[in-house]
Design brief:
Helices cover 33% and strands 20% of the residues. It has helices at residues 2-11, 18-21, 45-58, 112-120, 137-142, 150-153, 226-229, 263-280, 289-293, 311-317, 343-356, 370-394, 410-421, 448-467, 486-489, 492-505, 519-522; strands at 13-15, 38-41, 62-65, 81-84, 91-96, 102-107, 124-125, 160-166, 172-176, 187-191, 197-201, 238-248, 252-260, 305-309, 330-338, 365-367, 399-400, 427-433, 438-444. The protein has a seven-stranded antiparallel sheet with strand order 16-13-15-14-18-19-17, sandwiched between helices. Strands 5, 6, 7, 8, 9 and 12 form a six-stranded antiparallel sheet that branches. Strands 1-2-4-3 form a four-stranded mixed sheet, covered by helices on one side. Helix 13 (410-421) packs antiparallel against helix 14. The radius of gyration is 23 Å and the shape is globular.
């Protein structure tokens, strides 16, 4: 057995030259200073086990690298080895079930866009939809990725049925949902192939009661052990293979970008669209049978996406889209699945909703065919491109929020954002997932002085979100950039509990060093 593993390792691609590994030392956070001794490209779980076993013995840091689309520097290494999952890129199986959905089994390095296209070719749907779909499947699991469709379908966690994970100790566990749970006292036990057992206690904190949360380890009473690895940001193990649940593919879509002349009208429209959507699906946090069957009856509003653009965002977008109405001070992108039977009554229902809330309906944009829907999606994704051009011009990094708050607190949180920024010199935009009470405030500094002010305001936003029961990171995770802010959400004792949990899985402390919590906490 050992000779066969050795022969595989000899064939594993390894790069050490600076020009060859440069692309694996950064991500979309643009945090500078990343460095590593080498980058390895495993093609199997055995390859990863060999790397991790030796690294644990030598106490060499290991950083897991996905596609590099993350924005919190999770994959930026500061020494040691990078495990690049690029060659773990096989979709192994897509199957159908009797309920009209199915399952897919794929390796961690499969590009999400490729998996979704393969699934859609089978008439199925894999709902998680982060904005950057060139991400790797393993990375979406490691961050519990979400996106605009999360409003209806929930984040990645809802769809993960099984994980194959390589542990830092050199063993591989295959965890299926429903098989292992924490006990009533918060202890988890995982039997290992070697015959030994991992025993660890969950942290004692309670997670914020928000729809989206990606700030530290998932904790819940008698939780499924599988959920611990989802959103763990490469700190507990290396995801090798994923089995996900699939839904029946929708027949069609109705979508629109709707403009409003007053913020009060926009917010009242969102409130009704959100409440009716939640009511029509039973307000269940999990996908209901009605959703699985796409059995929306005629006239039932059930948006799968509600996205917000503030007046500053529209100002940026007018540079590229001259048809954005001058009277528009904000916009909402909505989308709902349709069938041939209910498309017309649904359009009537949405138009009535717009009329009640005094939308600029005649100047808004709607789509029911694929070509028009592609134009609306292009509009949605144009704003980040325009802002990136701004950052390149001024050679500054954006300061961007990722906070979410409970339903009753959102209007006050939005006003707090606006009051803190309006009337000042700092440029900004506010846009994002308003259906989930989760918008991104992007502060756009033009020089180092403005950048320092932006970071001060960002901390104010963090503290306000925590004070009203929200989370500091709803979808991007903590990584290295936000780990100090985690102290605002959890106490020192709770952070030490997280570190103790990590040490149970990674006694040498090699995996994802610097991610989620600072190394001084890990070393205590």
């Amino acid at each position: 057995m050992f000779s066969s593993v050795s022969s595989v390792v000899q064939l594993m691609l390894t790069k050490t030259q600076p020009d060859e590994i440069q692309d694996f030392l950064s991500d979309a956070s643009y945090l500078p200073g990343g460095n590593a001794a080498r980058v390895v490209f495993p093609e199997s779980a055995e390859d990863i086990v060999d790397v991790l076993s030796k690294a644990s013995k030598d106490r060499t840091p290991v950083t897991v690298s996905g596609a590099g689309t993350g924005t919190v520097a999770g994959r930026v290494p500061f020494g040691g080895i990078v495990i690049a999952t690029d060659k773990l890129n096989h979709i192994k199986q897509i199957t159908h079930d009797k309920q009209g959905g199915g399952r897919a089994i794929a390796e961690a390095g499969v590009i999400l866009r490729d998996l979704q296209r393969a699934v859609e070719a089978e008439g199925l749907l894999y709902p998680p939809d982060p904005t950057e779909r060139s991400c790797f499947l393993g990375g979406t699991v490691a961050t519990n990725a979400s996106g605009s469709r999360t409003f209806k379908y929930g984040p990645t966690r809802k769809y993960v049925e099984r994980l194959k994970v390589a542990l830092a100790t050199g063993e591989v566990v295959d965890l299926r949902r429903g098989e292992l749970h924490a006990d009533a006292q918060g202890w988890i036990r995982i039997p290992l192939p070697s015959g030994r057992e991992i025993k660890a206690q969950l942290p004692t904190y309670r997670m914020p009661e928000v729809r989206k949360h990606a700030s530290g380890y998932f904790v819940a009473p008698e939780m499924d052990v599988l959920d611990l690895f989802i959103g763990s940001e490469g700190t507990l193990g290396v995801i090798v293979e994923v089995e996900v649940k699939l839904l029946p593919g929708p027949e069609g879509f109705l979508s629109g970008i709707v403009f409003f002349a007053t913020e009060a009208d926009l917010l009242s429209f969102v409130a009704e669209a959100r409440s009716r959507s939640l009511a029509n699906r039973g307000s269940s946090p999990r996908v209901s049978k009605r959703v699985l069957a796409h059995a929306n009856s005629a006239g039932q509003v059930d948006a799968r996406a509600l996205e917000y653009f503030d007046s500053e965002s529209l100002g940026f977008l007018r540079q590229k889209y001259s048809t954005v109405p001058d009277a528009g001070i904000g916009a909402i992108f909505f989308e709902q699945e349709t069938t041939a039977e209910n498309e017309e009554p649904l359009m009537t229902e949405w138009l009535g909703l717009l009329e009640r809330h005094q939308a600029l309906a005649d100047e808004s944009w709607f789509a029911t065919n694929e070509q028009d829907q592609a134009r609306l999606r292009e509009f949605r994704h144009a704003l980040p491109v325009l802002m990136n051009e701004w950052f390149a011009r001024y050679r500054q990094r954006k300061v961007s929020t990722d906070m979410a708050v409970p339903d009753k607190e959102f209007a006050g949180m939005l006003k707090f954002y606006q009051d803190s920024l309006r009337g000042g010199d700092l440029r900004f935009t506010i846009f994002g997932h308003i259906g989930d009470n989760h918008v991104h405030v992007n502060i756009l500094p033009r020089d180092d002085f403005e950048a320092a002010r932006a970071r001060e305001i960002y901390l104010k936003f963090i503290r306000r979100a925590v004070a009203v029961g929200g989370t500091i990171s709803a979808e991007h995770g903590i990584g290295k950039l936000k780990r100090e802010y985690l102290r605002e959400l959890y106490s020192e004792e709770q952070l030490r509990e997280m570190a103790a949990l990590k040490r149970a899985f990674d006694p040498a402390g090699i995996l994802g060093r610097g991610n989620i919590f600072a190394e001084d906490i890990l070393d205590k």
